[in-house]
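=== RUN LOG ===
request id: a7f3
mode: sequence -> structure
chains: 1
length: 87
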Amino acid sequence: MPIKKSAWKELRKSKSRHQRNISVKSEIKTFTRKLENLLTAAKKSEALEIYKTLVSKLDKAASNKTIHKNTASRNKSRLMKKISKLA
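=== RESULT ===
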């Protein structure tokens, strides 16, 4: 456990950041699952709407370094490829 006051503060900051990162990643996974379900149901217009919000969330998470920028890019690319196959 930390001894110095600054180390305690850093521990508190780390815990709160951890909780925020978990919630952001969970939200991304939820939207990804929704999109996958719409793709299996072949609902392209609804899938594009979810895709737009998902891209926004992925970009924001990547800019805050919650996830790596290449991971966000890879996920966006793969999902767009699946959406394009519906046409």
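=== NOTES ===
The chain has a mean pLDDT of 96.
The chain has three helices and no strands.
=== END ===
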